[in-house]
Design brief:
The complex is a heterotrimer of chains A (119), B (506) and C (632). Chain A has 119 residues and is mainly alpha-helical. Chain A has a single domain (12-113), classed as Helix Hairpins, CATH 1.10.287. Chain A has four helices and no strands. In chain A, helix 2 runs antiparallel to helix 3 (45-68) and helix 3 (45-68) runs antiparallel to helix 4. The model of chain A has no long low-confidence stretch (mean pLDDT 86). In chain B, strands 1-2 form a two-stranded antiparallel sheet. Helix content of chain B is 72%, strand content 3%. Chain B has one domain (5-497). Helix content of chain C is 76%, strand content 3%. Chain C has 27 helices and two strands. In chain C, strands 1-2 form a two-stranded antiparallel ribbon. The longest helix of chain C is centred in the last third of the chain and has 47 residues, at 546-592. The model of chain C has no long low-confidence stretch (mean pLDDT 86). The chains are: A mainly alpha (119), B mainly alpha (506), C mainly alpha (632). At the B-C interface, helix 11, helix 13, helix 15, helix 16 and helix 18 of B face strand 1, helix 6, helix 7 and helix 26 of C.
């Protein structure tokens, strides 16, 4: 296991100059965290949907990156990413349509007000 | 047997349900004709099977087998023996009668008959299935239509029909949940390769299932089948349920569905788990005695006709349970015969009550009086059913009751003694009811009520024929049942040799 | 020809049953046709019964060796329930009595029911009754007897409640059925125990099995069985304390009272004991019980009859009293005397009831004897028949009652002095109240607005025939050797004990004289006597408050207990069910608070869950690594 306190300057420099799997994963994690943060905090339905897209894309990034760094790369990760994008597109289409209907019906897209499923 | 007789009997109502689905809502006549025609066909076929059944040979006849889910060992296996054949006959006769009892339903006729047909098919399936999986499947098919029918066509009296409906459904489902656990554990314990009842029975009797498992599994089955049979203290759904349900549902429910409990106890409880049955039998006998007396007493203070018959059927089921608990050939013969007898009698009662309720919207004993002046045919129906449940000879209940008493008195003297005392209380509440409702001075309010005729008369005639026919010639019924019970005799003899486990002689 | 009757004895009950079917399904709306059918079929079965009687006499068939035919009715397990016919002198005598009275009563009913729209139904029920009673008489085993026993009970119920629009009739019918049901319960238990003990219910087989059984195991359980069996007759034959239904049963049409509640059905209990006498007579304790129940009932009912006012009710208590006599005879070991009295009583009591029917119809449903009077002039034939009946039941020689009653008194005197005294006192009371009935209703002045007239021919001729039978049957039975014909054990010596006979005739004379002085000459005021008697009079007039006692019992132990149990069912058994439902509902309310509809909250909770799960699985992985780490 790597001990964070025994990192030398060279370690950091090597990390910064040699782009590898870890960078992609880090980026995806950041993206995912931003998306999650937005999903949990934004009041609007559309921003929340956008955040979901962000999280989805973070996952796609992971898929593609892992695929690239496989010892014997094939196309399965890319393929999954493509599927995922397609599904995501469909999801946006449905989601936006829903949001539209909700707005027509309730005259609001504020998530705090949309609590009709309250138990 | 080349012609798939049992499949026809089972699937004809389903086909009828489909056909009715395709008809437009307005064609009430066609809908009713299809239902009646189908049930007549099923009844005729069943009667043929009843007549053609070879009582000398016995065993499963008219068998059909098609492998279904081979991985689980599920087979679409049908067949009837001396125990299930009377039940099948009962189902179809009462089913036919219930179609005619619902002849004048105005509200959503189409939906009603679709559900009724599905219900009848489900009940039929439970009795002729030789595979536990099919048995459970059919049983679950039964529950849903009943709930919907109570909600839409039921009536609200002491309790709202919604309450009655959900109570009925939950009790049935709870019963089936216990049953399901019991059945699955049975399936696994027996090796997990077949749901066939014969295979399981062979496993149970040959000692593959050890005693502790049998005791545990039987308890589960007892909870399931017992609450179905309205065994004390799981009986409270029955009067409320009957009171809420439309008369066709009450008829099928009291007449046939309840009997699945008794049938299951014998078919699964006794045949597959004999040691478990032996263990719990004294408890069942005690509860049966409570059933008989307790429900009879309560029936005495009821006002609503359907409640009286509801409690009365709880009371009569006590005799069935008692017959089962004594675990000898005579008493079990009596228990099966009593199920048939009570089915015919109770459904006749409910059809007559349904008729009077349909015409007057009255069902409460204090409000009805002197019906004999205006409705002689209805009076005959009530009297036949009433006198049969009092156990008069020449009517269907006499021999079964006598048989149960003979079979149980030596095994559980105290329980049997008290249960026999039930004949006094039965006479008391039945005669009180008959006297109040039918006799007494003329009441002008009922002068305009038409007597039964046409389709309304069919339930009375149909059920009356069996009520009197099996009463005068009991061998017609007992002969078939005997051929079903005789094969059990070695098992029962073995059991009675084993020591009683729970308490013993009450 | 006699042999034909014997081998076709099963037709005797079947013919009236057929009549019931034909009338019930076909002609019930047509009065005349129904009556014709009923009478024709009854007549045929009467002829067959005569044939059987002839066969029994000529063959001869004796008590020890009856003629039996039977067929399987139902088989359960290894128990065979059969139905059939058993013919011996006892059966033949009963067949003769039942078919005779049934036929006469049906003929009488043509006149009696002429104006009743329900006559078709009436004849149907009468036919059904005749069928059931004859089936009972012919029983080969206890099960058959119980089955027909229940059926005659049913017919009794239907016929008492014939005027179903009358509340009193409805209640009386119910009471009759339920009271006898209590008896049937005991009897059923007895029968079941017979089956369990001997493995058979067949009379003939039991008779052969019994001596060995007693020899081997003693009489302990048999005594219980016999006592249980005897509860049935207590109910059916109106013995104390289950006699209360019989007086109420008079709500039925009078021909019914004559046929069912005097001549035939109520003697079924006596007949049962007689039929199973091989069992009862082997158990001295049981015999003693029977004797005392009978003796007490006889006396008890007679004391009630003395003060009653309605015509038929006096006769009803008289019937109870006479049935007690028959039981007494059985209890003191004389089957002969009991059956002899059964036969003569059937004739004269049917006669008395039919006279009562004629009188009450003539009086336009007025039943109180003190509102009658002087009917002797208005209804001479009825009066003569009635007088014959009264003299017969009072035991005036040479009428029928003299011989049969004397046989019972003699039998009682042999066994026990108290029982003899009780029976003699009863005889005195019987003579007194019958004389009272006759004198009050038929003598004295005609009441001013009395509508009474002589009855029509349909009703008159049966009276005359029954009167003739009431005159001759006793002497005929006595001199033709009834005792050598129907007996159990050693042949009873048929002789008249002049001391006993003289005493009872003298007492009868005294009773007649007293009644004459009180009710005709009015030398003593009946009112004054009743006032002097005070409590005794009130007790008797109110029938010792037995009915009130039962009402209290019923209210507390049946209705109140039922209400309590219903409460229990609603609030405890169902309470648990509803409580469970409410608990589930409440729980869902609590858990539902977490479902606040805020999607983002759900997402947050979801991610917390994901993180927790991830952390957990990492932890497990780390622990696994720590354990097996060396392997990597």
């Amino acid at each position: 296991m790597m001990d964070p306190f025994s990192l030398t300057f060279m370690d950091v420099f090597r990390f910064a100059t040699h782009i590898g799997l870890a960078h992609f994963l880090l980026l995806a994690a950041v993206l995912f965290a931003i998306g999650l943060f937005g999903l949990l905090t934004r009041r609007g339905l559309i921003p929340a949907l956008m955040c979901v897209e962000l999280m989805l894309n973070a996952v796609n990034l992971n898929l593609v990156a892992f695929n690239r760094y496989l010892p014997m790369p094939d196309l399965s990760g890319q393929l999954m990413a493509l599927f995922s994008i397609a599904v995501g597109a469909a999801e946006v289409a449905v989601g936006v349509a829903l949001a539209f209907r909700v707005y027509r019906d309730r005259a609001t897209v504020n998530l705090d007000d949309l609590d009709h499923l309250k138990g | 047997m080349d012609f798939p007789l049992l499949s026809t009997v089972l699937l004809a109502p389903l086909a009828a349900a489909l056909a009715i689905c395709l008809l437009p809502r307005e064609s009430r006549d066609q809908i009713r004709m299809i239902a009646a025609g189908t049930m007549t066909l099923a009844t005729v076929l069943t009667l043929y099977a009843y007549a053609a059944y070879d009582t000398v040979e016995g065993g499963m006849q008219f068998t059909e087998e098609v492998p279904w889910i081979t991985d689980l060992g599920v087979t679409y296996a049908l067949g009837v023996d001396g125990i299930s054949l009377p039940m099948l006959l009962l189902t179809d006769v009462i089913g036919l009668a219930s179609v005619f009892s619902s002849w004048n339903i105005e509200k959503r006729t189409k939906d009603f008959f679709v559900l009724l047909m599905v219900l009848i098919a489900g009940v039929t399936g439970t009795f002729i299935a030789r595979d536990l999986f099919i048995f459970l499947l059919c049983y679950e098919v039964v529950v849903i239509p009943i709930y919907i029918m109570v909600l839409i066509w039921g009536s609200t009296k002491r309790v709202p029909k919604e309450y009655a409906g959900i109570k009925l459904t939950i009790f049935l489902l709870m019963g089936s949940a216990f049953m399901l656990v019991g059945v699955v554990s049975l399936y696994i314990a027996a090796g997990g390769d077949s749901f066939g009842m014969e295979a399981l029975a062979a496993a149970g009797q040959s000692g593959v299932l050890d005693e502790n498992f049998q005791i545990f599994a039987f308890l589960l089955l007892l909870l399931g089948f017992g609450s179905l049979l309205s065994m004390f203290p799981f009986h409270s759904w029955s009067p409320d349920g009957y009171a809420g349900a439309p008369s066709a549902v009450s008829m099928i429910h009291a007449g046939v569905l309840k009997k699945i409990g008794g049938y299951g106890l014998i078919r699964l409880g006794l045949l597959v788990l004999p040691l478990g049955a032996k263990f719990w039998a004294p408890l069942i006998a005690a509860l049966a005695m409570v059933n008989v007396l307790y429900a009879a007493y309560i029936a005495m203070v009821q006002k609503d006709l359907k409640y009286i018959i509801g409690y009365s059927s709880v009371s009569h089921m006590g005799y069935v349970l008692l017959g089962f608990a004594a675990l000898n050939a005579v008493s079990i013969t009596g228990a099966i015969a009593n199920m048939v007898a009570h089915g015919i009698m109770a459904s006749l009662f409910f059809s007559q009550i349904g008729y009077i309720y349909e015409r007057t919207h009255l069902r409460s004993v204090p409000e009805l009086a002197g019906l004999a002046h205006h409705l002689p045919r209805l009076t005959v129906g009530f009297m036949l059913a009433g006198l049969a449940s009092v156990g008069l000879p020449g009517l269907i209940e006499f021999v079964p009751e006598f048989t149960i008493f003979v079979g149980t008195l030596s095994v559980y003297p105290v329980c049997a003694f008290l249960a026999i005392a039930g004949i006094i209380f039965t006479a008391l509440y039945i005669l009180r009811m008959l006297a109040k409702v039918l006799f007494g001075p003329r009441v002008e309010r009922f002068a305009g009520v038409p007597d039964e005729q046409g389709a309304d008369l069919v339930p009375l005639l149909l059920l009356g024929v069996f009520l009197v026919g099996f009463g005068l010639f009991p061998e017609l019924l007992m002969g078939v049942i005997r051929s079903g019970v005789t094969p059990l005799e070695p098992l029962l003899a073995q059991l009675s040799a084993a020591p009683a486990m729970l308490g013993g002689g009450f | 020809m006699f042999d034909f009757a014997l081998t076709h004895a099963w037709l005797i009950p079947l013919l009236p049953a057929l009549a019931f079917l034909i009338i019930g399904l076909g002609t019930r709306r047509d009065k005349d046709a129904s009556a014709k059918i009923a009478i024709t079929f009854s007549g045929l079965s009467f002829l067959l019964a005569l044939g059987v009687l002839g066969a029994v006499i000529t063959r001869p068939i004796v008590m020890a060796d009856p003629f039996v035919m039977k067929t399987l009715w139902a088989k359960v397990g290894d128990i065979e329930l059969s139905m059939g016919v058993l013919v011996d002198p006892l059966t033949a005598m009963m067949l003769f009595v039942v078919t005779t009275v049934a036929l006469l009563v049906q003929i009488y009913s043509v006149g009696y029911m002429a104006h009743d729209p329900g006559a078709g139904r009436f004849f149907a029920f009468l036919s059904l009754f005749a069928a059931s009673m004859l089936g009972l008489v012919l029983s080969v085993n206890f099960m058959q007897m119980y089955a027909f026993w229940e059926l005659v009970g049913l017919c009794s119920y239907l016929l008492i409640g014939f005027y179903y629009y009358k509340d009193s009739a409805r209640e009386a019918a119910k009471k009759a059925f339920i009271t006898t049901r209590i008896g049937d319960f005991g009897m059923l238990l007895g029968i079941l125990l017979v089956q369990l003990t001997f493995g058979t219910m067949d009379f003939v087989e039991l008779k052969t099995l019994l001596p060995t059984y007693i020899w081997e195991t003693g009489g302990g359980i048999l005594t219980i069985i016999a006592l249980l069996l005897f509860i049935g007759p207590i109910g059916k034959s109106g013995q104390f304390p289950l006699h209360v239904w019989l007086p109420d049963a008079m709500e039925g049409p009078t021909p019914v009272s004559a046929l069912i509640h005097a001549a035939t059905m109520v003697v079924a209990g006596v007949y049962l004991v007689g039929r199973a006498y091989f069992l009862f007579s082997a158990l001295p304790v049981v015999l003693e019980v029977i004797a005392w129940v009978g003796g007490f009932t006889a006396f008890f009912a007679a004391t009630i009859a003395v003060t009653q006012r309605p015509f038929k009710r006096i006769l009803a208590y008289s019937t109870i009293s006479q049935l007690g006599y028959m039981m007494l005879a059985l209890g003191v070991g004389s089957l002969t005397a009991s059956m002899f009295h059964l036969m003569t009583h059937a004739f004269f009591k049917a006669l008395l009831f039919l006279c009562a029917g004629a009188v009450i119809e003539a009086m336009h449903e007025e039943a109180d004897i003190f509102k009658m009077g002087g009917l002797r002039e208005r209804m001479p034939v009825t009066f003569r028949c009635m007088a014959i009946g009264v003299l017969a039941i009072a035991g005036v020689p040479p009428l029928a009652g003299f011989f049969s009653k004397d046989a019972i008194l003699a039998a009682a005197a042999e066994v026990s002095l108290p029982l003899y005294l009780l029976a003699t006192a009863t005889a005195f009371l019987t003579a007194f109240y019958m004389a009272r009935l006759l004198f009050v209703a038929f003598f004295g002045e005609v009441k001013p607005d009395c509508p009474a007239q002589e009855t029509n021919a349909w009703m008159r001729w049966p009276l005359v025939i029954l009167a003739a039978l009431s005159v001759v049957s006793g002497a005929w039975g006595h001199f033709a050797g009834f005792g050598e014909w129907i007996f159990y054990g050693p042949v009873g010596e048929e002789h008249i004990d002049w001391l006993i006979a003289g005493t009872s005739v003298a007492l009868t004379a005294v009773a007649f004289y007293l009644a004459y002085e009180i009710y005709v000459m009015k030398r003593w005021s009946a009112y004054e006597i009743s006032r002097r008697l005070g409590v005794l009079y009130r007790l008797s007039y109110n029938k010792y408050y037995v009915d009130e006692f039962y009402t209290v019992i019923r209210n507390t132990f049946v209705d109140k207990l039922g209400a309590v149990l219903y409460w229990f069912d609603l609030h405890v058994v169902d309470g648990v069910v509803n409580g469970l439902a409410r608990f589930t509902g409440g729980l869902s309310g609590v858990l539902g608070l977490a479902e606040n509809g805020q999607v983002q909250r759900y997402v947050a909770v979801f991610y917390c869950g994901v993180i927790a799960l991830t952390a957990y699985s990492l932890l497990i992985a780390a622990m696994l690594l720590a354990v097996v780490g060396g392997a990597f």
